[in-house]
Amino acid sequence: MTTVDHLRQVRLGNLRTVLLALVDRPGSRADLAARTGLTKATLSNLTEPLLANGILVEEPATLAGMGRPSKPLRFHPDGPVAVGAEINVSHLAVETLGLDGETLRRVLVPTDIRDATSDEVLDRVAELIREIIPARPVLGVGLAVPGVVHDGVLVRAPNLPKLVGAPLAADLGLRLNLDVELDNEANLAALAHLWPRHLAGEDFVHVSADVGIGAGVVLHGEVYRGVSGFAGELGHVVIERNGVRCTCGSRGCVERYAGLDVILREAGRRRLDSLAKALDAGDPKALSAVKAAGEALGVGLATLMNLFDVPTVVLGGSYAVLHEHLSTAIQSEMDARVLAGGERHTTLVASPLGEFAVVRGAAGLVTRRAVQQPERLFA
Amino acid sequence: MTTVDHLRQVRLGNLRTVLLALVDRPGSRADLAARTGLTKATLSNLTEPLLANGILVEEPATLAGMGRPSKPLRFHPDGPVAVGAEINVSHLAVETLGLDGETLRRVLVPTDIRDATSDEVLDRVAELIREIIPARPVLGVGLAVPGVVHDGVLVRAPNLPKLVGAPLAADLGLRLNLDVELDNEANLAALAHLWPRHLAGEDFVHVSADVGIGAGVVLHGEVYRGVSGFAGELGHVVIERNGVRCTCGSRGCVERYAGLDVILREAGRRRLDSLAKALDAGDPKALSAVKAAGEALGVGLATLMNLFDVPTVVLGGSYAVLHEHLSTAIQSEMDARVLAGGERHTTLVASPLGEFAVVRGAAGLVTRRAVQQPERLFA
DNA sequence: GCACTAAGTTCAAGCATTGAACGAATGAGG
DNA sequence: CCTCATTCGTTCAATGCTTGAACTTAGTGC
């Protein structure tokens, strides 16, 4: 490392600080200087190339009180955007997201892709992306998949075995001529609650269910993925060591008691919306199925909280839909089993993001990286 | 932050890099330059104050081959030391540790302190520390306690209720006129395997048992403590949700099946050494008690690994003593229950540190901080 | 004694931030 | 309409750390 590099690091770090402040909200140079602790001089200096490169715009002066009016800076309305894409068992989704955190467009297409080849799926995803891409620079694509990702490769996907091992990121990248980054849907759903807005603090777990149960774990403001991408496999936390046999080879996994397929079967329903209606109608079979699932999930979450010591659980995906009927059982198991559960306040909330959480997180992966490594913005 | 601060940060960062390289092993300026990526000029500059302040010494030139002989730098034999101290239910321990990672002296005194007041305990600890402190500068004291520590306060200690809430760090600090830092014994036992030598990689869990079961979790080379110090409470991971009632209010906690007290009771023994002898003699009751504990612990560890995704488990404390008879059961549960357990290699090893692991970690807390914040060395 | 090699030192150059001084743009008050 | 107060944004010399090249030092090999 040369000295130039050292100083460049300082500059990039400050650039990151400034961009983070701008993601939070727009502001004049003077305002940003106050918020970041840097000087006005440095702010002029740092923002100059951002303005020159069309990343930021200077808005017309706002007339507010005495003194020279400030000219707020914000992300350029024609500046770079990120693309998020989600490949899931029963649907595909895409979204475009600006650096300011605003969604530009989003599309969700129900599609059963269980039997499709990776080429067929990627063709379809690429087509969807092309349809929504605006006439603006594109930073890259975040691609969500329902499975374990390690070193950019899908290494485990019980529900999409055909895609395991396929070079999904590279292949989609070739189709679109863009950088593509692959990640697990649970991690990305969690990220969507962390970036660009903190919806659940800096330490939380996001839990959702489709066929499996996935938890995205956020520790100290970072998604925790573990050494090989397997972190947060809440579905295979054991709650009854001699319990029901699981496809993973273990017994008594949470997934066997609180998976969406189990809930539906026990409730005698085929689809989530039908279950939701039954619950609202007070159907006893539905209510007891959901309660049983909540209890199992609560035991697993208590274990998780005793290990990770995070204060907040966010229910996402199908669990968010059911949360009204699910929360009581979960919370009571957690209160009884989380160490010092009474004094430590454990918060259980439903995700506000709905069915677009994953794809939004996928796009967020890209905007976040752009902000954290500002040199990418000038490429 | 002034510009001076920025530059100082660069310098301190480089100082840290150099000190880390020296903890690894001594080396000449040229050698260190090569290892750290800095230039010889910078190394001369950075080491000058370290030599002037008696942190490092320059050894006589070593005659090795051609060229001007190098003068290796190492930590000064009369340089600053750290003190570790451990308060436990049945013993007190102290240790002095040099920056080079060498233990100077250590003492372990069996003492039942269950009924002692915090003043009595701290008097005793201070006395032990005074006995082993050498005539060298002291960086500070790391103090290990069997309980949950948050913001420097012991907030939960089922086995030492009298010490909960007492200002242990401050009070011991007053007695010795030194900085004292408090931490949980499980975290410190784990730290001892990470610093100053990597004994189990950068991602692992250290598990040990006394009355409770504690896990110290190391993620990406840092001890993970959670938001409120409760992380790694493996003892209260549930393995049978309708199992044995636990003192914590839950049911089926690992601790109720694999705690040392449970093992001893089931084996019909009073003490660990008696159990160890029985095991070596092939006593069936002892063997089956340990096997049962290993199975329960294995289930809990599988759950932990499915959540944290760390590749290595280190058995410490009493478990290290029993590991020969414990490992098989643990490993087989882990292989069966850790997701992709076959392909991911999960390593299970016994700690090489013996009964001084905790106190060594406590001292390591202090040397580690000194290296990571080198400005402390000049105070 | 001389060439060769490698360690360690010296020093001018380069660079990002700073703080103070300065210029710019507006509102308030007369 | 003019002047003063106020705040925004820019300019510029100063600061201090690392660098790389040149240089000095201290050995080996012949």
From TrEMBL, chains A, B:
Q: Name one Pfam family in it.
A: ROK
As given in the record, the signal peptide range reads none
Which protein family is named in the record? Belongs to the ROK (NagC/XylR) family.
Which PANTHER family does the record associate with it? BIFUNCTIONAL UDP-N-ACETYLGLUCOSAMINE 2-EPIMERASE_N-ACETYLMANNOSAMINE KINASE, ROK (REPRESSOR, ORF, KINASE) FAMILY
Q: What is this protein called?
A: Transcriptional regulator
What organism does this protein naturally occur in?
Lentzea flava
